[in-house]
Prior knowledge:
Layout: H1 18-29, H2 32-36, H3 38-45, H4 49-73, H5 81-88, H6 90-122, H7 128-145, H8 147-177, E1 181-182, E2 185-186, H9 203-217, H10 222-225, H11 233-242, H12 244-262, H13 274-281, H14 287-319, H15 326-331, H16 341-351, H17 354-357, H18 361-393, H19 408-425, H20 433-460
Antiparallel strand pairs: 1-2
Helix pairs in contact: 1-8, 1-11, 4-9, 4-11, 4-12, 4-18, 4-19, 5-6, 5-18, 6-7, 6-14, 6-18, 7-8, 7-14, 7-16, 8-12, 8-14, 13-14, 14-16, 18-19, 18-20
Amino acid sequence: MHDKNKKNADGTVRSLSNRHVQMIAIGGTIGTGLFLGSGSTISKTGPSVLLVYLVIGCLFFLMMRGIGEMFYSDSNQHTFVAFITKYLGHTAGYFTGWSYWIGLLFASMAELSAIATYVNFWFPHIPAWLIEVVFLAVLATLNIIAVKVFGEAEFWFAMIKVIAIVALIVTGIFMAFFHASTPVGHASFGNIFDHFTMFPHGFFNFFAAFPMVFFAFQGIEFVSITLGESKDPKTVVKKAVNETLWRILIFYIGALSVIMVVIPWTKLSPTNSPFVQVFSIAGLPAAAAVINFVVLTSAASSLNSIIFSAGRHLYQLAKDTHTDGFIHKNLTHVSKNGIPIASIGLTAALILINPILTVTHSVSFMFTLVAGATSDMCIIVYLFTMFAHRKYRKSADFLDHGFKMPAYQFTSPLTIAFFIFIFVSLFFIPGDEVGAISAVIWTVAFYAGIGIKRLVSRSKA
């Protein structure tokens, strides 16, 4: 095989180009929440939302620098969880790996449900389950054919999101420059600062915006999972990670600023997409349909990436189990195209449970409960990742001339403290505390189970 598509030792193929990885990074940075949910956040915090996004964006950037540093030193790993196993031990890796994979399953089910909702916007008579099956089949097939096919699909999915955001920013700046008249006043840069107060609806709403925005960035780490199958990982990881901050500034801070320039934040509807509101004011007659298409592709992009990520995580977990075990024997198969096909196939099959989960209220409630817990578990996984990075820094693997996390002595504990703050804050926000408590119960139960298993093993020895 040609060098540019060389195989790894495990049979996976390095066929993702820099172009693919950079757009996957952009796609991972921009979530559906920006298009749909940012209006609610703005209405609660006003212009202070820019500070919230900036703070959280910077701290996610620091986490990505930590992950990037470890991948730079060992680009043969398929997932960042592999570094948790490597530096914190098998138990920690086992716990975070399975927790993260389960979380990805539930996230994929949520995206699949969202896809059905967006398609029903145009075709309300098509059963949701049929839409879900068709989209899942198509995206799973893209993942199974070849890594390059996945990368190409993600490239164009991300491009659609970029075009929508750039169009919004250009439209808003144009309207502000000409002081365009709108149904709620005039487009003006002064709209951001008119009636400005740091906490327009009280400190608690400002405080509650942090976990809301945090979850909007969830998935930003997906790009790191592509590095094990990229052509030039050491070059790609630097570019992909370093540009994370600029993407946040342009796509989030830029878009949110323009929204408040066109529509005064006091007049913005919290329930409708701010993108639809801006484009409607600008005179785009099909604004709702256009943004529905954007969020549909955004959800499809997320599901596509989750299938890729979850498949690699399950593959890594299977590789880390005993070689004579069922999981290792059945889930480590790599196709001739370099795809961990068994792990992706099982992941896709389990996602098909989603239509069944909506049949009864009790099952739906359990889905919501577990989905909330697994989403919150990501915070714990991020914490373990940062602890693994600290262990890496003290290990013989540390590259002093590598892609180092800036100001590590300060930024590492700061990032860890930030994740702890976000997790603790969930206990004080109505509706979020159940997921946080469930995540704690899962963590305690897992480690208690491991402890009991070890005690039993010792007693039998």
